[in-house]
Amino acid sequence: MRPELAARLGQNVPRYTSYPTAPHFHPGIDATACRGWLEALGNGDEISLYLHIPYCDRLCWFCACHTKQTRHYEPVTAYLRSLHAEIATVARIVAGKAGVRAVHLGGGSPTMLKPEDMVALGAALRASFDFLPDARISVEIEPNDMDEGRLDALAEIGMTRASLGVQDFDPKVQKAINREQSFRLTKAVVDGVRSRGVESVNLDLLYGLPHQTRESVSSTVEQALTLEPDRIALFGYAHVPWFKKHQTMIDEAWLPGPVERFEQSQLAARAIVDKGYEAIGLDHFAKPGDALAVASRSGRLHRNFQGYTEDRCETLIGLGPSSISQFRQGYAQNMPSTAEYGRMVAGGGLAAIRGIALSDDDRVRGWVIERLMCDFAFSAIDLVERFGERGQRLLLEASSMALKDPDRLLELDGDCFVVPAESRPFVRSIAAKFDKYLETGKSRHSVAV
Known about the structure:
- The protein has helices at about 5-10, 30-40, 75-95, 115-130, 150-155, 170-175, 185-195, 215-225, 260-275, 290-295, 340-345, 360-375, 380-405, 425-430, and strands at about 45-55, 55, 70, 100-105, 130-140, 160-165, 200-205, 230-235, 280, 285, 300-305, 305-310, 315-320, 325, 330-335, 350-355, 375-380, 410-415, 415-420.
- By secondary structure, it is an alpha/beta fold.
- It is globular and about 60 Å long.
């Protein structure tokens, strides 16, 4: 562990769930380009779907997602009509070519939907797309939303993985982030989904929150582990009030400093690993038999807008406002405004308004960044075999970096460039060294550790 580096290397850098990252998307990629990329899908391709539900009945101050609070259900009903329209349009374009391997419902709060609307949405997806027999369906669950009807609805749509936001069980921390959620409630939801045959449960925990201490983080992790989740995601709180104005409700004086954040993250990680979980990438943990752990051990771990995943689909289609789609050719993002999104998809339109087409240089740098984020290493031989001359040029760049770095954040071991174990908490900062866009961009990011 190297806490002395936390203050120096914990700079603001992207999370690298894509490369190039979203701040570098531009209006040159629009609905026409997105339609062309959809039409280019080949017969037998496998795709993933992401459905964004941009509403919550309560706004958590820590959240950086694209969502809005509503105390009335009418806006949600209107939005669902638009979402169904976009589903129908995309399905017509890819009909007969692509099979659905995975579906992820995120938000916002997907579980804010009424049970009948959740069931109708699941039915529309299955009626519109060709689902593969073992397709996975994961849903982000807000435990405060849940009741027996919603639990039954999630079972009816075939949910295979439930992902519950926990953050922290300490009442003082919960009050500071406007997210009151007892351990008893969380356990009831976990028991509820498992009693309905859902075998995979993921818990999201946060460190670096207002009023958090090492003791409160340790207590939260200890309680979470009693639920025996299959996966745990341990994220650092991203304080970005210039991007999400509601985060100004959090007094920055309440936030732990960089060294304290680092110590919280390492304390939590040790406690999770000591219970038999395998560390996956930067911030995920899984039981050894979980598909994510298997993918990590076999070098098949990937990273996309949902974070670490065993999903090998090259195409991820985002549905809903602000959703991002990933294609072989590049990325496309939908209109963020819910009202404008609705107007764009009415009558068979698509809602993409920005994105980026991948250059050859983007592909080679993106591969290196993904392998660093997933494996903390990449093979020089693989780099050159995959990308030829461009790979060779980046190999020289990596060699120079390894030789000149006094902190030894990247070392050459045989034919592999490896991030040493003690430097892995800083892998986002290491990946940023391969990001050619970072110095030219004007966007601000969250801290790396």
